[in-house]
Amino acid sequence: MDKGVLVHIDALLAGIPAPLDIPASEVGAAMPDDLVLIVLDDDPTGTQSVAGLPVLTRWESDDLDWALAQGSPAVYVLTNSRSLSEEHAAARNREIVAVAVAAAARAGRRVSFVSRSDSTLRGHFPLETDVLRAAAAEHGGEAPHLTMLVPAFPDSGRITVDAVHYWVVDGEATPVGETPFAADATFGYHSSDLRDWVEEKTGGRVVREEVAALTLRIIRSGTDAVVAFLRALPAGSVVAVDTVEETDMRQVALALHALDREGVTALLRIGPPYLRAHIGQPIAEPITADRIDFANERGGLVVVGSHVPLTTAQLGALMVDRPDTATIELDVRSLIDERRDAHLTAQADAVARAIERGTVIVHTSRELVTGRDGEESLEIARQVSAGLVELVARVLALTPPRFVIAKGGITSSDVASEALEIRRAQVVGPMLPGIVSLWQPQVGPAIGIPYVVFAGNVGTTESLALVVRTLAD
């Protein structure tokens, strides 16, 4: 495809076999009973496609013991590594592996690690998969045979066809390397074909020709075809996985479960929905207001930190939908200079007063302030996120809200772990079909305050307004 030329989804899929009919229950029955997946999630938005699973923002031994005691097939551990430097991201991944391996041994479970990252390819790759492969070998004696790349997120228009990753909007597919996500100040890239992307991100250590393409034509030929394709690959292979439908992921999962029984293991690098397919969990219905427990009747708190264009559009639509809702802005430049403390004090007091009367929207100024390079830009993002965290913590101490919605990956991770001190939570389910996760905190000062994790780059323009309506009306 020529750069800048869109293709309609129907043309993209022309000639490809139809999706298979695979119920989630078939995959669940195939998953080994002794296996638990530890999902190292580089921001908390990865839980948006699952329901009924434990999630941790801390990883002391007793935290992992609690999570494994729930008997779930998977546990999410929030590393927040997308906001960290490479050095700190690597150290955090290694630390979690060591604690999880020990906890699994105490629980009598076999453990496998999953690296959950962004469906638009932003994050520490290949760093995190390299670290997890090495750590798995160190603790288990053998590195995973395959590294599976499954970034697709069909619920949000991210699909992979013939190894090319696309963002689909209104039926038109744009190669992801030509979207705003590829221009990310820290994790930017040029390639849309995952084989080229791997070569680009590994600096040529893994060349395009060494990346296997598990295409829809193979996947939709059935389990035997997928098993045969993957079994024939050399140990250490990286596999780019096509995905357009949920059943494509379920078919891959069935094949990986079959290979696991043969001793052929895989390290998963995935977008949000693949975990759901891999454990055989059906697509959950969106949470309705009658299923949510609230501790008080004050207004809720909507915190918007993400600066991607979709978030800005969603914020605008929310303000139009709720013109009488108090809206308070945090000025980004004031958060990164000497005005920080005074600005936070004034705005936190204003939010606390307004929550007594109703729901409050807090957002950072929409100007995107970047540094001279990726690391400096990341540091600015950390400072801004820390300012939002401090504001939410002050509000929680002054006037606990009815609910909290955090918009953006770094924002939602830091608000959960630092401001609300949610060390352990249960994922209730999605607020919208396949996206936007609702947690119920299990410990800490936020017990009774439903917490909504809302990624910056998912949904439609109206999605944020719809979620606020469910919680506030």
Instruction: State Rg.
Output: 22 Å
Ranges where pLDDT stays below 50 over 5 or more residues in a row are none
Strand order, sheet with most strands? 10-11-6-12-5-2-4-3-17-18-19-16-13-15-14
Count of runs of 4 or more consecutive helical residues = 16
Strand content: 15-25%
CATH domain class name of the largest domain: Alpha Beta
Ends distance: 47 Å
Largest sheet: 15 strands, mixed
Average predicted local confidence, pLDDT: 93
Total strand segments:
19
Considering the protein shown, what is the CATH homologous superfamily of the largest domain? Putative sugar-binding, N-terminal domain
Overall 3D form: globular
Structural class: alpha/beta
CATH architecture of the largest domain: 3-Layer(aba) Sandwich
Q: What percent of residues adopt helix (DSSP H or I)?
A: 25-40%
Explained architecture:
This protein has helices spanning 9-12, 24-30, 61-69, 86-107, 127-140, 194-201, 216-219, 223-231, 246-261, 274-278, 309-321, 332-335, 340-355, 374-398, 409-419, 463-472, and strands spanning 7-8, 35-41, 54-56, 74-78, 110-116, 146-150, 158-161, 164-169, 172-175, 211-214, 237-241, 266-270, 301-304, 326-330, 360-364, 404-407, 424-432, 435-441, 451-454. The chain is of the alpha/beta class and 473 residues long. The chain folds into 2 domains: 7-278, Putative sugar-binding, N-terminal domain (Rossmann fold, 3-Layer(aba) Sandwich); 289-472, Four-carbon acid sugar kinase, nucleotide binding domain (Molybdenum Cofactor Biosythetic Enzyme, Chain A), CATH 3.40.980.20. The strands form 2 sheets. The chain has a 15-stranded mixed β-sheet with strand order 10-11-6-12-5-2-4-3-17-18-19-16-13-15-14, with helices on both faces. Strand 17 and strand 18 form a beta hairpin.
